Amino acid sequence: VMYSIYRDTDAKYVFFATKNGTVKKTSLEEYVKTKRKTGVAAINLREGDALSSVNLIKDEDIVMLTKNGMAIRFNSNEVAASSRATIGIKGIELKADDEVVSVMTVRHNDDALAVFTGRGMGKKFPVSELPVNHRAGKGLIVYKPTGVTGDVVAGTLVSDEDSILIVSKSTSICISATEIPQQSRVSLGNQLIKATDVTTVSKV
């Protein structure tokens, strides 16, 4: 996972999330003041876990999205700051066959949460429809994957002026956020790219 830090950022913390639902935040100063060419330990991981996402935050809400279409929103202040060499705490309660695919920082409550699947389906709904709960809960269903849609592979918070790059192993497409249909939390969305192996989605 790679994250670019702007020189004028006002973020205070680095927020880590793992595939198994663990979250951790650490003061940004612990990383930017380090001058070692070989790098430093950023987070300790349990066996079988892997880093899923890194975000820079102050005190915003966090949204965690899973491949089975569950999402949870909680305030990042529920996660106490800890040192670099720590494991973290539970952010979302996952079923055995689920994992975290995206973690987003809510900076504008009028943004929409866009959800994308491995077979090129996508939709969005107002992030304000996702209630703020406490961390470590199971979250709410925001997508019901099927064999036709494939698992949820990514999510991002968008506004109408954003452009979205959808990438599969064989092709890619850049679309306006306005082309993502706004639908209910339980709808399947529309086909946004003709692919069966979408891997990444990002704002450009």
Description:
The protein has one helix at residues 29-32, and strands at residues 13-18, 22-27, 51-57, 61-66, 70-75, 89-90, 100-106, 112-117, 121-126, 140-141, 152-158, 163-168, 172-176, 190-191, 198-203. It is built from one helix and 15 strands. 2% of the residues lie in helices and 39% in strands. It has a four-stranded antiparallel sheet with strand order 3-1-2-6. Strands 7-4-5-10 form a four-stranded antiparallel sheet, with no helix packed on it. The protein is mostly beta strands and 204 residues long. The chain is globular.
Summary keywords:
204 residues, mainly beta, 15 strands
Write the layout of secondary structure elements.
Layout: E1 13-18, E2 22-27, H1 29-32, E3 51-57, E4 61-66, E5 70-75, E6 89-90, E7 100-106, E8 112-117, E9 121-126, E10 140-141, E11 152-158, E12 163-168, E13 172-176, E14 190-191, E15 198-203
Antiparallel strand pairs: 1-2, 1-3, 2-6, 4-5, 4-7, 5-10, 8-9, 8-11, 9-14, 12-13, 12-15
**Low confidence ranges:** none
Number of strands: 15
Write out the strand line-up for the largest beta sheet, numbering strands in chain order. Answer: 3-1-2-6
Give the overall silhouette.
Answer: globular
Distance between the termini: 17 Å
β content, as a range? 35-45%
Count every helix, treating DSSP H or I runs of 4 or more residues as helices: 1
Order of helices and strands: EEHEEEEEEEEEEEEE
What number is the mean pLDDT?
93
Q: Biggest sheet, open or closed, and with what strands and sense?
A: 4 strands, antiparallel
Q: Roughly how many Å is the radius of gyration?
A: 17 Å
Query: Structural class of the secondary structure composition?
Result: mainly beta
Helical percentage? under 10%
